[in-house]
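Researcher: Structure prediction, please.
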Amino acid sequence: MEIGRTNFNYTFCPLAQSSNHQPSRIFSLSSYHQPPLLSTLLHPLTLRFTSPPPPQISGFSSRVRIKMSQAGEGKDETKPAMSPYEEAMEALSSLITKRSRADKSNKGDKFELLFDYIKMLELEEPIKKMKVIHVAGTKGKGSTCVFTESILRNCGFRTGLFTSPHLIDVRERFRLDGMDICEEKFLAYFWWCFDRFKERTSDEVPMPTYFRFLALLAFKIFAAEQVDVAILEVGLGGKYDATNVVENPVVCGVSSLGYDHMEILGNTLGQIAGEKAGIFKRGVPAFTVPQPDEAMLVLEEKASELDVHLEVAAPLDANMLSGLHLGLEGEHQYINAGLAIALCSTWLQRTGHVEINYLKEMTNLPEQFVKGLATAALQGRAQIVPDQLIESESSGDLVFYFDGAHSPESMDVCAKWFSLAIQGDYKQHNSYGSNRGHNELGASHDSVEMGHHEASKKSSTQFLLFNCMSVRDPQLLLPRLMRACANHGVHFQKALFVPNVSVYYKVGTSMPTDTQVDLSWQLTLQRIWENLVHGEKGNDVKNTDQIYEEVTDDAEKGARSCENSKVFPSLPIAINWLRDTVRKNRSGRYQVLVTGSLHLVGDVLKLVKK
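Model: Predicted structure follows.
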């Protein structure tokens, strides 16, 4: 019997009854597929499943609501009817509020309200029974969760994964068995939760805010779908995060810590670490990765207070992958993979699926672990996507390099990855692995590598496409990125600064048309970049107001151009400018690094996918 891509021998155990009086299912790894070392240690590895097969949704329907105009207002006949999914996005958008710290200064943000919401959805018992892996961190927590989910899915478990943010579609946040939840199921669970909140909330307990609603929706989905394991990525911080309502997770993890969201989490690494350690629960084991001393000291103090056994997971040794490569690109992913292995091993032991922590003494990983690490996939992190329109026209070579780096430390990592990738060295570099799967556009990394080989004789030009949130300090981000790239011999011909589409639009997939956008932030980024470039060249820093070029090209209408940069009023105009540049020089090779914001990465992917 094939379950979760792993073959098992199936045997009913009629004497083993779960709490809901349904028979347990015991699966033993087939000796044909079982790694020799795993067989030696476990004789054989036996995985016990107590949940029944995943149910089909019944009693739900994807309903189209007829929106009635408010009293005294007429129906707008000019508006096209919304699809059921668009209507759900409209309702979800109504929950978006300005992010603020969850403390007593804001009634709607009181952490305790989450437990009222859980009661409204009747999720108290389902959450208590959920076998949760909870992961916080500044960098790499999403990648760690993806590795963890992929490993356990390849071990045959039914998995639920909740991550944030989404890049293109909100359904990306909810994965069942490695796949985004389908639209039909999403709508069914969405309206079930939304309507119940509408009926039961009040002035004292208002509607949950955007992220809290999504986290609660994840709990509802995972409970109803009866997943064997729920992997939860913290949205922001840890202590007051909506995912932290889980009172007894199986194991917790903290990925690499750094400076981010300081306006909420604190200005020192110690303060940030204290917020992240808020997911620790008394007596529940936790793992972290090598951290700066200031952060590690706080993690250890918090762990000691709660009698938490905190262990540092070593980065994965590439030699343990049996000649394969990690599914996620980048040297830093070996740190995240090491943390994921520790989380999975402990989860298997503490849930009774193995008797010992068998990974501690291993020199090779079990086949299921290797396959899980090699097939893990996550959009927007070290992702390479050729432009589909330019490829279809056979009019040149335009490739986008996506990485959602948005902290000073991650800028260094992003720059190193990009520099190696554009030189075609990433597939030879012994710490890097090619993603052998296909990305969302259907272009495999093998085809990208072939494209690198075919284009190796072309002259190459690098552009930077950048934006970041105004709460982040571009004086920290842009210098780190520029200097790290320069250290690897990469210099951008121009930096392009654009507003994020998603900042100005509700949740959904529509792109802007003629919206007026304030570009003052992008012009600030441009001034910083121009000053950096002139400083690198040893020139006097100029006032960028004095060096704007005259713009005459219609495609650049509204753009503000400097010697080394451009500000575009919208992302589609910037993409069109890049495509026109390629068409004018078909013998050239153009490589665009998209970074600074995961929202920007998602917005560009929407356009490139068209």
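Model: The longest helix spans residues 183-200.
Researcher: Thanks, that helps.
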